[in-house]
Sequence to fold (209 residues):
Amino acid sequence: MQVATSILTANFNELEKEIKALENSDYLHLDVMDGHFVPNISFGYPVLKNLPKITKVPLDIHLMVTNPSIFIEDFIKLKPEFITIHLEANKPLETIMKIKNNQIKAGISLKPNTPVEALKPYLNLVDLILIMTVEPGFGGQSFLKKQVAKIKQLDKLRNENNYRYLIEVDGGVNDKTINFLKNSGCDIVVSGSFILNHDNKAEAIQALK
Ligand code: DX5
Ligand code: ZN
Fold:
């Protein structure tokens, strides 16, 4: 299992130190929120722009914003591994094409109440599908077990049709809930508070892997 550590609940007064302790993460997961698509505001490009200077861990950007297309130009400057937008946001198709035209892997994410069927036009287009196992907006929520059926459904569709997307799961992942994801088809787990609240962060990451 690959692990993307979410820095949403990091101590931003000591961000550099926090990030240095996460170097065995496969990705750093960056939760960008606009206070409109979700009822919370986190950080944007101005706060993140110097991250590549302090870490070599590839970046995984999760845009929880209503109009992602207006932010893409800034985020591509970070040369991230993935930029993921929400299916429920404005102009998802146009935004995915914008991301891909900049040679960056494009992801699409589903809120818990959005069914897998809604992804049909995107299945052969995207590099990653992000299944939310909490309502987006906040770290530290409980894992919604019912969402595991979606992961299995997407894995089955991928095998039957030779789609090449990765499946990533975000929200409430810890050393207990990860057991629901074993053999589900999930390739990458996002985990925030479980890792950041751990005294030994490298060990917490390793435990999930
Ligand atoms: C929620 C975010 C998640 C969150 C995960 O809106 O997308 O990435 O930071 O945090 P935990 O692991 O605490 O649920
Ligand atoms: Zn996220």
